[in-house]
Amino acid sequence: MPALMGQMMQMPLLISSLIRHAARHAGDTEIVSKRVEGDVHRTTWAGIEERSRRFAQAMARLGCGAGDRVATLAWNGYRHLEIYYGTSGSQLVCHTINPRLFPEQIAWIANDAGDRVLCFDLTFLPLVEKLAPHLGGVQHYVLMTDRAHMPASSAIANLLCYEELVDAEDGRYTWPEFDENTASSICYTSGTTGHPKGAVYSHRSSVLHAYGSALPDAMDCSAADVVLPVVPMFHVNAWGLPYSTALVGCKLVLPGPHLDGKSLYELFEAERVTFSAGVPTVWLGLLTYVQSNDLKFSTFRRTVIGGSACPPAMMKTLQERFSVEVIHAWGMTELSPLGTLSKLKAKHGALPREEQQRLLEKQGRVVYGIDMAIIDDDGHALPWDAKASGNLVVRGPWVIGSYFNRPESPLVSVDGEPGWFPTGDVATIDADGFMQITDRSKDVIKSGGEWISSIDLENIAMAHPAVHEAAAIAARHPKWDERPLLVVVRKPGASLTREELLAFYEGRIAKWQIPDDVAFVDELPHTATGKIQKLKLRELFRDHRLPA
Ligand code: AMP
Description:
Layout: H1 15-25, E1 30-34, E2 40-44, H2 45-61, E3 69-73, H3 78-89, E4 93-96, H4 103-113, E5 115-120, H5 125-131, E6 140-143, E7 160-161, H6 162-167, E8 183-189, E9 197-202, H7 203-214, E10 226-229, H8 236-239, H9 241-248, E11 251-254, H10 261-270, E12 275-278, H11 280-292, E13 302-306, H12 312-321, E14 325-331, E15 338-341, H13 353-360, E16 365-366, E17 371-375, E18 390-395, E19 412-414, E20 417-429, E21 435-440, E22 444-447, E23 450-453, H14 454-462, E24 467-477, E25 481-490, H15 498-505, E26 517-520, H16 534-540
Parallel strand pairs: 1-11, 3-4, 3-5, 4-8, 5-6, 6-7, 10-11, 10-12, 12-13, 13-14, 25-26
Antiparallel strand pairs: 1-2, 8-9, 14-15, 15-16, 17-18, 18-20, 19-20, 20-21, 22-23, 24-25
Helix pairs in contact: 1-2, 1-3, 1-9, 2-3, 7-9, 10-11
Bound molecules: adenosine monophosphate.
Adenosine monophosphate is lined by residues 189, 236, 306-309, 328-333, 337, 363, 423-425, 437, 440, 446, 451.
């Protein structure tokens, strides 16, 4: 007997449907942006939708067609939001680039993605002028500002003005319908070896992620919220908030480059923000400002903290001193990014407060749409008993299947069943499905929510004539969570000081990626196959105090 097929409409899940929905049902709801230019700008979801259409027209006028990549180097702001929707909605691909990377890395990423247009904020004009000679494929440079702020001259020939491009169009544009599996955006993640790798999201994966992330046991977004994403729009689409806030039609507040404690606090208060999201490091800055000035939040009620482990003390301060609910979340670029969030079940209501707190401190339970397992080194699933610790693997409609431009599959099998993405995180899971990260098997350092490749650091050290062998590991840091520590064996008879080696990094890597400290040792621990035993090294230096 053939299966009986469903008889519901076939409508592709397209990103344009999110912005059309927001414009239709929350058309007068505000989008507030603190601009790079210094002032506060106000528009609405209807305004964003209208200008996204004009942006789509402008890109078509520049000769861009389906599949072309339009890159951004930009802060969280309304123009960036218009580019998000204007590109994806018209079948172009939005490629958000992290401006904190070293210029060579940015150029490599833009060339790998095959970017045709680069849109950027005023802040990044000097950077883009330096990059331009190395960006072979970029045909158009768009400065995201108005005529009044355009530079009198620039090293970039034919620099285009965003406002002029948008103003020149009439907005008579209908969002096209196409296959929901079409690419919508690309985001690069720092690889553990070699170059960064591109995660290509589809319309389908982005819309499903927006649905999942707005659920009550996830970010719990509603039309009654005022949302301020501190997490940048260049880092995994600001955890999908530009999409999920359109889906629920709530007010959105975009802080631009103004991420210090004072600026954020003033924006939270002025715009009556109820919900925010970001990495632990930004909350440190905000909390320090609020506490040292003895201030209170009037409307802020809930925050998602993730990207790195949320320190329990920070969680407690936000909960107890400021009555802000903290939702600890885990995710990855390869997961669009949401995987798990820590929310209690009804049955946990009966637990003593301290036990509830311990659950909330874990990385949490999966959102529907994500399937997870922990496995041993032979690919066998381990029990969910909160004790067995194994490699965390996931699968689902918003999990990466393959990287851009990389033929090899990253996927692994669980008990012989193929199709699981290995996260590089090591975790336990309890009987209720609460996942807790216990370690990381991938060889990277995460400082203030941004990756530093230990391999890049080691390669530079090894290029120094006095270095025999070097290993970069993460050392604990109170502000940045992790900072790089270099463990070095000198060549026999060679002399080399900490200062000399650190000076060697200048100009070879972004300043903030330079190690904080160097420890000289006689030898490094190795495995039987000759690899450096990073785990052992991390244990040896667990209590290492970095210089202030
Ligand atoms: P990214 O792709 O830059 O978002 O980084 C993803 C990685 O950040 C994960 O694989 C983890 O190693 C780490 N990470 C993200 N969220 C958390 C968290 N809540 N606790 C610990 N590590 C986290």
